[in-house]
D-ribose pyranase
Amino acid sequence: MKKHGILNGPLNAALGTLGHGHLVVIADCGLPLPASAAVVDLALVKGTPRFGDVLRAVLDDVEIEGSLIASEASGSVIEEIVRAEQLMPELVAHEELKALLPSTRLIIRTGEATPFANIVLRCGVTF
């Protein structure tokens, strides 16, 4: 049994395949997901798990070199959560963020029900 870190098997497996430059999305429960996307659905009920909890767990496991959030989230609790994790996200229109979804390596769906609670993470490299 794992002693710490992410316990969800499918999420662990998907994170283990990531490489430099891959895009990972942490999404709220309302984001329309493309049928072709690799999705790990963690949503249990509305509000669980929370966006911030999933973001923190992923950041503990994955090296990140950049991020994007919707400009519509500017000044919101979502931007506060992202900045509290010491990410300095680029702001893009929500429609532009959604247009990136088919090119992502992984989408992690949360139960978050706060508007615009989505982030695109660009994987870095540890060496």
In short: Strands lie at 23-27, 39-41, 64-70, 90-92, 106-109, 119-123. The chain has one domain: 21-123.
